[in-house]
């Protein structure tokens, strides 16, 4: 059996980096992955400007009780004239500093009357309240690294440089295959012996939620020919295929033979994790295929903690492992298992600033109602008696599904 960390790393290592790029507008950029490193092309601010509403003067012209004639009024967007010695310029936040001025007096420290300004408080320092050219960004310096997931903050930085669009990786195209004779689609009539296909909707949402494109979702019956046809359609159309169910050792677990009959190479892993265990990585005509366990909770957890780094790598992202924290696990009885356990928990903030994790009562791998309840997964070590209050790694699903 493969250890969890090893399986996670091997999956990510099996992932090809993206090659296709496209140019998108800033409006379309959030959530996309920057494909090229970008350097600043502008000094920002482009010129010294005022950080406050007030008056620009020469520091040397200040003396207690100074009363300076107002030479000009400079609004944001105006081009100022040079400041004459012994005079002041009225200006506002964002107004350019006129040549010759070196200090801004805030308007609260002045009185204006008869075309003059009286300075009632001594300036604290030469150069005060001036935003210097280039103090934010400097032309030629690195701005953003390739592999960055663009969010509002990055879009703001790109827009400030005057960029209207940006080169990103093409969205990762992911196909989903669900399997099973017992399944009917939501909205259809259901016989007693049937259940609704929840994994198709779940995986579609997980794929989109991480920022990839759900290219196609197919369902196959538990028949080799049906599975083969669906797999072939998906590998022809996608960068990555996720199949779910039909991959353990039952008589109707035919995904493995279907992959082999398409000439695919397949490595079946027993990962020492719970829920999960059977996970397979295959390659059909060069396209990677990950086979997830059929139980909805297992598929969800395995996608979140085991497979998501692989998807992020295929998206071109540099940060493929979201942050982990540690928190106290609250349990009624000590627990121990021969596999590492990923327990569905809710995180609660403590008054001292710490956090504690409460497990969902029923940890069965078919208990879908536990999924919307859980904020994350607590990772319990294998072969160790875990006591109440033990500090364990916490996988926050807001990060691990993003
Ligand atoms: P399998 O791995 O195909 O044996 O499936 C394991 C369990 O997960 C069985 O109880 C299946 O009915 C259930 N299951 C498999 N696929 C789905 C699905 N797409 N939606 C809901 N339940 C599923
Ligand atoms: Mg099945």
TrEMBL record:
UniProt feature, compositional bias: Low complexity: 1-18
InterPro entries assigned: MoaB/Mog-like_dom_sf, MoaB/Mog_dom, MoCF_biosynth_CS, MoeA-like, MoeA_C_domain_IV, MoeA_C_domain_IV_sf, MoeA_linker/N, MoeA_linker/N_sf
Pathway it works in: Cofactor biosynthesis; molybdopterin biosynthesis
GO BP field: Mo-molybdopterin cofactor biosynthetic process
EC top class, as a word: transferase
Residues covered by the MoaB/Mog domain: 175-313
GO cellular component: cytosol
GO molecular function: metal ion binding; molybdopterin molybdotransferase activity
Names of the cofactor(s): Mg(2+)
UniProt keyword annotation of Transferase present: yes
Protein EC: 2.10.1.1
Domain of life: Bacteria
Recorded catalytic activity of this chain's protein: adenylyl-molybdopterin + molybdate = Mo-molybdopterin + AMP + H(+)
Keywords: Magnesium, Metal-binding, Molybdenum, Molybdenum cofactor biosynthesis, Transferase
UniProt key word Magnesium: yes
SUPFAM superfamilies listed in its UniProt record: MoeA C-terminal domain-like, MoeA N-terminal region -like, Molybdenum cofactor biosynthesis proteins
Family, per entry: Belongs to the MoeA family.
Chain's role: Catalyzes the insertion of molybdate into adenylated molybdopterin with the concomitant release of AMP.
Protein name: Molybdopterin molybdenumtransferase
Organism expressing this protein natively: Bordetella ansorpii
């Amino acid at each position: 059996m493969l250890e969890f960390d090893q399986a996670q790393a091997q999956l990510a290592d099996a992932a090809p980096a993206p090659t296709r790029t496209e140019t998108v507008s800033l409006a379309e950029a959030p959530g996309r992955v920057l494909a090229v490193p970008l350097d600043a092309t502008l000094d920002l601010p482009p010129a010294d400007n005022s950080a406050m509403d007030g008056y620009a003067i020469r520091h040397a012209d200040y003396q207690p009780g100074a009363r300076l004639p107002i030479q000009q009024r400079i609004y944001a967007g105006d081009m100022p004239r040079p400041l004459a010695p012994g005079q002041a310029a009225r200006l506002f936040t964002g107004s350019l500093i006129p040549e010759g001025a070196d200090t801004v007096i805030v308007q609260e420290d002045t009185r204006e009357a008869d075309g003059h300004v009286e300075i009632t408080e001594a300036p604290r320092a030469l150069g005060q309240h001036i935003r210097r050219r280039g103090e934010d960004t400097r032309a030629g310096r690195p701005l953003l690294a390739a592999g960055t997931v663009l969010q509002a903050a990055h879009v703001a930085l790109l827009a400030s440089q005057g960029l209207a669009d940006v080169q990103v990786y093409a969205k990762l195209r992911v196909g989903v295959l669900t399997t099973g004779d017992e399944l009917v689609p939501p909205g259809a009539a259901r016989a007693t012996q049937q259940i609704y296909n929840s994994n198709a909707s779940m995986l579609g949402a997980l794929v989109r939620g991480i920022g990839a494109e759900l290219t196609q979702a197919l369902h196959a019956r538990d028949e080799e020919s049906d599975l083969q046809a669906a797999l072939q359609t998906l590998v022809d159309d996608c960068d990555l295929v996720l199949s779910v169910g039909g991959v353990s050792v039952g008589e109707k677990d035919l995904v493995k033979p279907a992959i082999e009959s398409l000439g695919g190479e397949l490595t079946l892993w027993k990962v020492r994790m719970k829920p999960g265990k059977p996970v397979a990585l295959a390659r059909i005509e060069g396209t990677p295929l990950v086979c997830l366990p059929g139980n909805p909770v297992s598929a969800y957890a395995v996608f979140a903690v085991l497979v998501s780094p692989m998807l992020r790598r295929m998206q071109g992202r540099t940060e493929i492992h979201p942050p982990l924290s540690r928190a106290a696990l609250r349990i009624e009885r000590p627990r121990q298992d021969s596999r590492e356990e990923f327990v569905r928990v809710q995180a609660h903030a403590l008054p001292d600033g710490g956090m504690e994790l409460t497990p969902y009562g029923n940890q069965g791998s078919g208990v879908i109602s536990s999924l919307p309840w859980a904020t994350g997964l607590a990772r319990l070590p294998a072969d160790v008696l875990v006591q109440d209050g033990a500090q364990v790694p916490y996988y926050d699903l807001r990060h691990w599904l993003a």
